[in-house]
Amino acid sequence: MNATKYMQTTVLRIMLFLLASASIIACGQQKSIDKNDKTTYMEYEVKKTEAEWKQVLTPKQYSVLREKATERPYTGKYDKFNGIGTYYCAACGAELFDSKTKFDAGCGWPSFYDPAKPHNVKEIHDSAYGMNRTEVVCAKCGGHLGHVFNDGPEPTGLRYCINSESLIFKPKGEK
Ligand code: FE
Known about the structure:
The protein starts with a helix and ends with a strand. With about 180 residues, it is an alpha+beta fold. It is built from three helices and nine strands. It has one domain: Metal Binding Protein, Guanine Nucleotide Exchange Factor, Chain A (Beta Complex). Bound molecules: fe (iii) ion. The site of fe (iii) ion (FE) has 8 residues, from loops.
C-alpha cells in the first residue's frame, strides 16, 4: 500500500468513526427526550415527559391521567357536586365540561352529556380488560379522563363518565 492510498484509507476510517459517533449521540439524545414516556410525547400539543408530569401532578392525578387508573366509585370530589361553572383538565387546563351538562348518573363518577368544546376531548377505542369501550382523553395533553357510553340523557344520549382526579372545577366568573 502506497502512502496516498494509506492516507485515503485513514481519512475514510476517521470519517466513518465520526459518523458512527454522531448517530450514537443522536440516538442517546432521542432516548433522553422520550425517557419513561409511553406514547404521547410528540402526539399532543402539551408535551411533557412522564418525569415532568410527575412533578406537576399529585400521585392520584398522575395514576389516573397518565396511567389510566380509575378512581373508586362514589369517592371522587365531583361525584355529588353541583357547583355552577366549568371543569378544566387537571393536567393542562384545557376547558372540558360545563356544569350545565352534568347529571347524576348514579354510577359513582361525575357524568356529563356533552363536552364544552368538542375539539378539546378525543375519543379512542379501548379494548382493555376484554371490554369494548370508548376512552376519553384530553385532546391537548393526552391525559386520561374516563370513558363515554351511549346511555346518557337527551339531547346527546351520551354519558361522559369522568374521573374527578382528571378535573379541576372553577365557579362561574372565575378564571
Ligand atoms: Fe389536558
